[in-house]
Amino acid sequence: MSAAPVTVRAAAKINLCLGVGPVRDDGYHALATVYQAIGMYDDVTATEADGWSLRVSAHERIDVTEVPLDDSNIALRAGRLLASHHGLDRAAALDIDKGIPVAGGLAGGSADAAATLLALDRLWRLDTPDEELLRLAGELGSDVPFALLGGTARGDGHGEQVTRVADAGSWWWVVVESDIGLSTPRIYAELDQMRGDAVPDPEVSVALLDALAAGDSTALAGALTNDLQEPALHVRPDLRDVLALGVAAGALQGLVSGSGPTCVLLCADHESAQSVRAVLHAAGHERVQVATGPVAGAHVVTYA
Ligand code: C5P
User: Fold this and answer.
1) Which atom of ligand 1 is nearest to the CA of 188?
2) How far is the CA of 91 from the centre of ligand 1 (A)?
3) How far is the CA of 26 from the centre of ligand 1 (A)?
4) Domain coordinates in residue numbering, the chain
5) Same fold for the domain at 6-165 and the one at 171-293?
6) Which atom of ligand 1 is the closest one to the Cα of 109?
7) Residue 16 — pLDDT band, cuts 50, 70, 90?
8) What is the CATH topology of the domain spanning 6-165?
9) Is 184 in the pocket of ligand 1 (CB under 6 A)?
10) Which residues are catalytic?
11) Stretch 96-119: mean pLDDT, rounded?
12) Does position 303 have pLDDT exceeding 80, yes or no?
């Protein structure tokens, strides 16, 4: 009898700080970042099959037309990588149900890759050690190891070396999605153009780590940073209004998420987040939601 399908859920990430250093020999930029997983999710269901296949469905607010359905899709790449890592000639049918916007700066593709690694590990009963799964994840993309880990963690290297950090908070975010996605390589290239050659090594600020450890939302608001924000705002100047409107409505601070265009607004509590959401919605931003963080990394939700 074939194994029952396995569904794994993986969360969106935001970067509480994103320090981008010099370009490395491998073409990536050195990063010093702190990730937080927030409560927006993609589900991946893996079913035994003779050949690889991929289906993508989504919540009605999400446009999936830009998701590649061929072998370049990161979930299919994850599946093939896990099979070849174990020397297996096996395949699976993957169904992705997206709740994370595409090309939004929330690492939705990375969530799919992480969910696929875990779903296939369980479906095929491989018991891959965590360190090996994290290493494979790092081969797939900079944000994929964090999507496995979840919670709040710093990311070094090009983002793939993840270490948990102390986080005493339960943070309230208003997440403002955009109609059109932004290409991550384009925003990195924009940053390279905006600054000179002498780029210092990036660092995570002590103030940010202290704010997290203390659960102090005012201090965290003062410590949020993102080196990709200026290049993202250069390409999408309209996002300045989103950030300003959120802060005027009562948010403690606003930030472009990763390479954008999603904007996140840190709020003091649930009530404040609801009222900031309502103001943005009334101003014509249809896709605005409240999300909390930190939440768990990729985890099994059903063995159907
Ligand atoms: O690792 P990932 O595939 O998600 O990265 C997507 C693109 O973002 C890379 O191809 C690169 O252009 C850019 N990037 C970078 N430095 C990083 C992470 C990503 O230049 N640390």
Assistant:
1) 20
2) 28
3) 10
4) 6-165, 171-293
5) no
6) 4
7) very high
8) Ribosomal Protein S5; domain 2 (3.30.230)
9) yes
10) 13, 143
11) 96
12) no
Does this model's pTM top 0.85? My answer is yes
138 Cα distance to chain centroid: 14
Q: Is the pLDDT of residue 181 over 90?
A: no
- Six token digits for residue 145: 């190891």
Q: Is the CB of 142 under 6 A from ligand 1?
A: yes
- Which CATH code fits 171-293? 3.30.70.890
Give the up-direction half-sphere exposure of residue 289: CA atoms within 13 A in the CB hemisphere: 15
What atom of ligand 1 comes closest to residue 158's alpha carbon? 21
What's the CA gap between 297 and 248, in Å, rounded? 33
* Cβ of 143 less than 6 Å from ligand 1: yes
Structure confidence at residue 1 (pLDDT):
59
User: Could you tell me where the DSSP H helices lie in 50-129?
Assistant: 74-85, 108-123
pLDDT in tens, 212-248: 999 999 999 999 999 999 999 999 999 999 999 999 9
- For ligand 1, whether the C-beta of 159 sits within 6 Å is yes
Question: What mean pLDDT do residues 286-300 have?
Answer: 97
Closest by Cα among 17, 260, 12 to 150: 12
